[in-house]
Amino acid sequence: MAQGKLLYAQSGGVTAVINATASAVIQTARARKVKVLAARNGILGALAEDLIDTSRESMASIRALAHTPGGAFGSCRFKLKSLEADRGRYERLLDVLRAHDVRYFLYNGGNDSADTALKVSRLAAEFDYPLACIGVPKTVDNDLAVTDCCPGFGSAAKFTAVSVREAALDVAAMAETSTKVFVYEAMGRHAGWLAAAAGLAGEGRDDAPHLILFPERPYDEAGFLAKVQATVDRVGYCVVVASEGIQTADGRFVADAGGGKDSFGHTQLGGVASFLAGRVKDALGLKVHWTLPDYLQRSARHLASKTDLDQAQAVGRKAVEYALKGMNAVMPVIVRTSDTPYRWKIEPAPLEKVANHEKKMPAGFIRRDGHGITPAARRYLEPLVRGEAPPPYGRDGLPRYVSLKNVPVRRKLPPFEG
Amino acid sequence: MAQGKLLYAQSGGVTAVINATASAVIQTARARKVKVLAARNGILGALAEDLIDTSRESMASIRALAHTPGGAFGSCRFKLKSLEADRGRYERLLDVLRAHDVRYFLYNGGNDSADTALKVSRLAAEFDYPLACIGVPKTVDNDLAVTDCCPGFGSAAKFTAVSVREAALDVAAMAETSTKVFVYEAMGRHAGWLAAAAGLAGEGRDDAPHLILFPERPYDEAGFLAKVQATVDRVGYCVVVASEGIQTADGRFVADAGGGKDSFGHTQLGGVASFLAGRVKDALGLKVHWTLPDYLQRSARHLASKTDLDQAQAVGRKAVEYALKGMNAVMPVIVRTSDTPYRWKIEPAPLEKVANHEKKMPAGFIRRDGHGITPAARRYLEPLVRGEAPPPYGRDGLPRYVSLKNVPVRRKLPPFEG
Hints:
2 copies of one chain form a homodimer.
Chain A: E1 5-10, H1 18-31, E2 36-39, H2 43-47, E3 51-53, H3 59-65, H4 87-99, E4 102-109, H5 111-126, E5 132-137, H6 153-174, E6 181-186, H7 193-198, E7 211-213, H8 221-235, E8 238-243, E9 260-261, E10 267-268, H9 272-284, E11 288-291, H10 296-299, H11 306-324, E12 330-338, E13 343-350, H12 351-354, H13 375-381
Parallel strand pairs in A: 1-2, 1-4, 4-5, 6-8, 6-11, 7-8
Antiparallel strand pairs in A: 2-3, 9-10, 12-13
């Protein structure tokens, strides 16, 4: 323990495999005799000195984390501002780290978290406190810069492609006398990565999904309705995948067009699929069903991609190795070295290059007509959903997910009024 | 072929395992040298003489049907009326069966289909046409009489319990700073079987789902909101599972309370989860997410229950055996002979006892407070979701679902103007 402790925290929306990263972090650190603390609810726990002693968990529990979705220590949606604007919080963070002899800080999240880790590293340098700050990538949105892909995305992508393929078979069987149009709403407020993944469900022109609506292309209602009708005329039914982030040409979110208030003044929660389904019903008079999978798409550990799981664990291991080597302000990122066969490796990237950047989907991934994916997109996406990694199931037919004890560490500092 | 052919048709909403029944029917008949025709889109194909020659499919394809969701020959939502009111259609059906030397008619569906099969058998007797009519059970709604459970339900139940367990872990991780309430909408317009299955996701009082809303109990908004708030106060978050069929005390569907028209006159498609989420947001001011899995819950073959798959195949095999034995107007039903260990067998039941009846969920399955399941429900449900039966996956990371050739049989009759 002479070398100090490691603090691990989870941030932002959780995924099917973020706990697999946590599992790899803890196992790698244990093997190197480094004690791992975890912050409860991400950076909030670090600020509140609400820390968890992971050494109180059995090795079996830590291994089981690798197949348990959600965020085992709690996550948070909370962004620290600039060093100047939020200096009190950054200094408190450093106080907490120092009080618990933390020499390695691993922040597992998206680009906001990379930014926080970067700023903490700068402040530590300013105060001459020896601290290795490592960002660890995670997000189903797949929008982190530098890394080829983001742990969490591959499993959500696999859920999306499999679900669309399955639901499409259902619709195909019912179309003659019942549902003719089906709309699937995919996560992705800013980029259409998950909507694109749905494209893996089919190959030919008449395979589902017949229409993908990307946030990267303006939503054109007349064009959309015409294509739905043409597909129903030609194929007998139409499966639409719409990204939650699609916008009209003048920049309004289509999701905001639905919703509003009903006649009782109650809030109507809308969404893109519900809105599009309503338009299909009104304008085309076709029977329509729609789904909003919401959290199911990012928590479906039962359908995790093996590639994604491997990468989630690899970034966790490498993050610890980088930290113990004394590297600072870096993130282990995934570098693709070959499409066929798919090969990848982990390399360190400066947090500066990741923080506050957003990776857009390449224009070349969207088919010229704007409603499908290109072979280039398929080459990129396909390896990420490859391989199965099911959790163990109990005698009761349900996955055996672990629940940690999360034993708190005794506080050493006065409460923080931040 | 001297003994005549067998006609198989699928009816009503399809399931993750109805094709497993089809696969068993065709394999069993092939082994007995009986040729199997399939009607395209259920009874509609039979009326239109739109028949498929399943002998043109390879054995590999027929075996692959057992792991392919949807309805391979197409299904339909179309109910024949009484023999008197719809006599023309019943006689046409008999003409088609006779023209193709069909001596065994297997109708795979719910209680409407059992009714159709029963009436066809009566008409055949009236015309002295030797025909064995067998109803084959199927429905995710689990509402068929006589049979202990319905093929299709166990897999949808497993999807429900697993998805609720997974999403609940997500919500638990985010609750401190983000989503505090999550609402899952389960299928079941008349009975809360699938909502009840969600109860398998947790056991203790503070395990998700914290609140199940059954169609068997009136929806009481004040009570609902108070329980949600109390759960959030006690546990930190609240997972609600609501059956699409819940009604207020005066018999109005809650699903109809949402929806309506927006300010542009567009149809707002609502649903129960969306409505409840809106009420939670308005009345309690809590951040809420919701999901409408819709067809995903009944097509998720990737998460099929092994028990369900076994039973779907068993009823298919038995249906053929009963037919070839000369039994008529019966349905192979599932008889539970023991809970622990779970044991079941297939027995013939008269279609008269199944047709047009609806099995309700026993009152003893709902907890006294109306918002959870009892140990009796757990004993009933748990074996039905037990065991995993994943489909084979391709190198592309997606399940390999089969697509049949569906070669049409040459028509022998003039078109039917029914």
